[in-house]
Write a structure and sequence with these properties.
By secondary structure, the chain is α+β, with helices and mostly antiparallel strands. It has three helices and nine strands, in the order ααβββββββββα. Strands 1, 2, 3, 4, 5, 6, 7, 8 and 9 form a nine-stranded antiparallel sheet that branches. The longest helix has 20 residues. The relative contact order is 0.14.
């Protein structure tokens, strides 16, 4: 391949990767365009890149994000990468679940109204309805409950 062809191909790749960002789509909008709910990613994504032709993506957080969901401890590292296509995310790096030990979540697939999370040798399915909102670092989907408990506790002591 000549140098000019390579340069043209490189510029085209950067243009495609920037297309989603240039259209003003959030990373959550992009997730939905691949038929996934926004709750697969926590609140607080600072930036993302995606190559629409290959589906390779990179998502960034300012800090490691941890929380619990349905009895599972989850950890999102500052950079999450993988490959997304309709109803399937593979080659995931940067998301872990604790099941006695920390395991990498390597893929997520959608089958009708279920999401299947795989750590390689094991997988677990959850209803999509559980992921309609994005979790918050520290408290996951239970932030409102924690706030309600704090308010009810403070009300008990106020006279």
């Amino acid at each position: 391949m000549s140098g000019s062809h390579f340069l043209l191909l490189l510029l085209l790749s950067f243009s495609l990767a920037a297309a989603a960002v240039a259209q003003g789509l959030s990373v959550y909008d992009v997730l939905q365009s691949y038929d996934f709910p926004i709750g697969l990613l926590p609140i607080g994504i600072t930036k993302y890149e995606i190559n629409p032709s290959t589906g390779r993506f990179s998502v960034h957080l300012n800090q490691i994000c941890t929380f619990s969901v349905q009895g599972y401890d989850l950890k999102y590292h500052t950079t999450i990468t993988g490959t997304v296509s309709k109803d399937r995310i593979t080659n995931i790096s940067g998301i872990q679940v604790k099941i006695l030990f920390w395991f990498n979540i390597v893929s997520v697939s959608r089958s009708d109204k279920e999401l299947d999370f795989s750590i390689g040798i094991l997988s677990a399915s959850f209803p999509i309805d559980s992921f309609l909102e994005s979790p918050q670092c520290g408290c996951g989907f239970d932030c409102m409950k924690i706030g309600e408990i704090a308010n009810s506790t403070s009300n008990v002591y106020s006279m």
